[in-house]
Each structure stands twice: as structure tokens, then as C-alpha cells.
Write a structure and sequence with these properties.
The chain is of the alpha+beta class and 322 residues long. It has four domains: 30 residues; 75 residues, Trypsin-like serine proteases (Thrombin, subunit H); 103 residues, Thrombin, subunit H; 87 residues, Pdz3 Domain (Roll), CATH 2.30.42.10. Helix content is 18%, strand content 41%. The chain has six helices and 18 strands. The radius of gyration is 24 Å and the shape is elongated.
Length: 322
């Protein structure tokens, strides 16, 4: 009788362990200590307040270093980082790169934040389980949603204030909001394998992340000052982007190329609003992606030749890139 009771108890305990294991396997977002992965980033300027997410990737000499997206902190002059207890500290932008959409912030290590474990995005497979961690608002600083990877090399094009940019991303079916941008994408071991990037506004529950191997390569180059990209000092778009051209009150054109929607001060290339770039260093240019690829082959201080149209007249100039 005692043996039968012992057998029943062992069997019940064994079944309980299996049930608990299955629960956490399919509800791992409840088991993850999300407060240790993500921080809330608040950005302010004279006109507006915005927010996003980020994560600490290293700690050195009482300073924490945080990765986020460039578009999270773009055009803001005050940035604050919050921990899960809603304690905040002012952050500084160590370095940033609009082309890769990566920014690095630093803060004094007074919030007792933990650095994450970096995984390997090259080892991912389609249908792998993933967890998107981030913050939608300050009332709930760390949230987590789960899903699976649906594409490992999804090419997407983003229309930014600096023109069209092309990215190779991880596509997933996890639900994310705009406040999740810059937050970590985790694998089942809690390792960061991506940076939450953008959601697909046209489809529910589809979002994209930048692979962590790509991100860390950019971070290393930024830290070593190896990225010295020049700028044309203008907001750019394709001449086929009629909607944006109308927004900037620029007439349509039959010329194929890249049109300058707005020209910044401080650049003496001689460009004007409405100019259309058709060749860069003797290579034909049909869109912003082609122009950026050619432009970023050069560094600041290099001399190049640019052809453009103004009022149907073709101009050719030689400039020193800034």
C-alpha cells in the first residue's frame, strides 16, 4: 500500500513538473524579468515630447551605455532615462548615425541598471520564438509581447526626414507600438538578438527589428570613430514621391533623380530647394537609395562631381564633401 501511495505521489509530482514546464515554455514572457532588459527614454525639445525604449549593453567606470534607435532621439535636446521604479536621470548622446538608425546614450550609473546579454542573430531561424520588450508609456515602463520570426532578411524602405533609407530586418509577428522602438528583441534564452525598429502600419501584428550582429558592428564603428559619413545638407526624396513634393510645394517633374526638398544652412554646395540630382561622381542616380550608396563610399573632405537640374537646365559642379 505504501509503495502504491509513493508511486502515485511521484507520478503526480512528475506530471506537475511537466505542466509547469509547459506553462513557462508557452508563457515565457510572464517568466522573463523584463525590468532588467529595457529602459524608458523620454525626449524633449521646445515644441514636443516623445519617447522610446533602449537597453544597457555595457557598464564602464560607473557609466551605463545604452543602445536605442536614432529616430527615437532625433531633433531632441533633452533626453532622460527611466528605470522600472520610474526614477530618471539625464542622458547624453555619445554618438549617433542616422543612416543606420543607431544611437548610443550614456548615463551615470545611479539607476542600478543591468546590462543585457548579447546573442547571435546569425543563428536565428524562421519560426524561432522571440520576445519584444519595450515601453509604450511611463505608466507601464517595461512590457513584453511574444511571437515568432517570419523572415530573417526582410528588406524594408523607410521614408525619413533625411530621405529614403533601406534596411535589412528581422520580420516578426509580435505586437509592438511606436514606444517600443529601440527596445531589445530577445530569444528564448533571454539574449538580445535584435533592436525593435518599426511596426508595419498596414498589417496588424507585423513588426521589424534590426539584427543585433548588424547593430553591434555599427556600435563598434561608432565607438572607434570609424564612421565619417558626409552629408549633402538637404532633405531628399525621389522625384516620384509626388505626395511629399506637394507637401513642400515643389512642382512635379519628368526628370528621374533625387530632388532637394529643403536645403540646410552651413553647406556651401550651391544647391537650392527643388534642384534634382541625376549623377553623382559620374554614376546615374535614380533614387535616394542609389545616391546614399554612392555618397557613403566617400568621407568628409573628399572631392566629387555632381550633376543636377535646376529649371530644366543641367549643371555640373565639383565639391568638397562636408
Amino acid at each position: 500500500m505504501k509503495k502504491e501511495v509513493r508511486y502515485v505521489l511521484i507520478t503526480c509530482l512528475f506530471l506537475l513538473v511537466i505542466i509547469v514546464g509547459i506553462y513557462f515554455l508557452f508563457n515565457k514572457e510572464d517568466a522573463l524579468d523584463v525590468d532588467t532588459y529595457s529602459v524608458y527614454i523620454e525626449c524633449l525639445n521646445e515644441e514636443s515630447i516623445s519617447s522610446g525604449s533602449g537597453f544597457v549593453y555595457k557598464e564602464i567606470d560607473d557609466k551605463s551605455y545604452i543602445i536605442t534607435n536614432y529616430h527615437v532621439i532625433e531633433d531632441y535636446n533633452e533626453i532622460y532615462v527611466y528605470n522600472s521604479d520610474k526614477e530618471k536621470i539625464k542622458a547624453s548622446v555619445l554618438t549617433k548615425d542616422e543612416y543606420t538608425d543607431i544611437a548610443i546614450l550614456t548615463i551615470d550609473d545611479e539607476l542600478n541598471l543591468n546590462s543585457v546579454s548579447i546573442g547571435d542573430s546569425d543563428k536565428l531561424n524562421i519560426k524561432d520564438k522571440i520576445y519584444a520588450v519595450g515601453t509604450n508609456d511611463i505608466s507601464n515602463i517595461s512590457t513584453v509581447t511574444s511571437g515568432i520570426i517570419t523572415d530573417l532578411d526582410k528588406e524594408i524602405t523607410i521614408d525619413t526626414t533625411h530621405g529614403m533609407s533601406e534596411f535589412s530586418t528581422i520580420e516578426m509577428n509580435a505586437l509592438v507600438e511606436s514606444g517600443n522602438s529601440g527596445g531589445p528583441l530577445l530569444n528564448s534564452d533571454g539574449e538580445v538578438i535584435g533592436v525593435v525598429f518599426v511596426k508595419d502600419e498596414s498589417v496588424d501584428d507585423v513588426a521589424y527589428a534590426l539584427p543585433i550582429n548588424y547593430v553591434m558592428d555599427v556600435v563598434q564603428k561608432l565607438e572607434n570613430n570609424e564612421i565619417n559619413r558626409p552629408s549633402l545638407g538637404a532633405i531628399l526624396t525621389n522625384t516620384t514621391n509626388i505626395e511629399l513634393m506637394n507637401e513642400y510645394e515643389i512642382n512635379q517633374t519628368d526628370i528621374s533623380g533625387v530632388i532637394l526638398l529643403e536645403v540646410y544652412e552651413g553647406y556651401d554646395y550651391g544647391f537650392q530647394k527643388g534642384d534634382i540630382i541625376t549623377k553623382f561622381n559620374n554614376k546615374s542616380i535614380n533614387n535616394v537609395n542609389e545616391l546614399r550608396k554612392e555618397l557613403y563610399k566617400f568621407n568628409k573632405g573628399d572631392n566629387v562631381e555632381i550633376e543636377y537640374y535646376r529649371s530644366d537646365i543641367n549643371y555640373k559642379i565639383k565639391v568638397e564633401l562636408k
